[in-house]
Amino acid sequence: MPTCPFYGSNIEEREHRYHCRFCDLELLDNEIQQNGSRKQISLDEPTSLEAAELSTRDLLGKDSYFLTCLLQLVRQERTISYHDYLLFFKKARHQEGDSLDDDRNAGRRYEYWTRKPWILGSVVVPFRRGSQMLICNQ
């Protein structure tokens, strides 16, 4: 039995075309699934953490899936840098000597990974400037 590739529901055939009433979509022959199965979507991450070093201008040209995956990776890295920062801070309190440089580096790293999600969030969900949305010219 032909089914919708998105919802898995039964579809109607109308004048040699298929229609899903739930999705309200006309479906092509190659999109039709069988017996309630749905279209398989690959969720491979299209990016790596190195993409966080792209400029804001470059990030504005990326699609929302790329940006959402990158935002997830950046948030994970922020958590790691936060735990590193706490570790350095606790270690410095109990240790004599010059660990101040390590503390500063850990602090800068934490600050970077804290600010990067703000940038990505603003790119994924553009902020308003007056009455117009921020629009990327590609």
Can you characterise this structure?
With 138 residues, the chain is an alpha+beta fold. It folds into two domains: 2-34; 49-128. 44% of the residues lie in helices and 13% in strands. It contains three helices and seven strands; from the N terminus they run βββββαααββ. The strands form three sheets. Strands 2-3-4 form a three-stranded antiparallel β-sheet, with no helix packed on it. Strands 1-5 form a two-stranded antiparallel sheet. Helix 2 (64-94) runs antiparallel to helix 3 (100-124). The longest helix has 31 residues, at 64-94. The protein is elongated. The model has no long low-confidence stretch (mean pLDDT 82).
Tally of contiguous helical segments: 3
> What proportion of the residues is helical, as a percent range?
40-55%
Which percent range describes the beta-strand content? 5-15%
What is the H/E order?
EEEEEHHHEE
Number of separate structural domains: 2
Q: Ranges with pLDDT <50 over ≥5 residues?
A: none
Structural class: alpha+beta
Q: Biggest sheet, in brief?
A: 3 strands, antiparallel
How many runs of DSSP E, i.e. beta strands?
Answer: 7
What's the end-to-end separation, in Å? 43 Å
Query: What would you report as the Rg, rounded to the nearest angstrom?
Result: 24 Å
Q: Quick summary of this structure?
A:
By secondary structure, the protein is α+β, with helices and mostly antiparallel strands.
Which characteristics define this entry?
138 residues; alpha+beta; 2 domains; three-stranded antiparallel sheet; two-stranded antiparallel ribbon; 3 helices; elongated
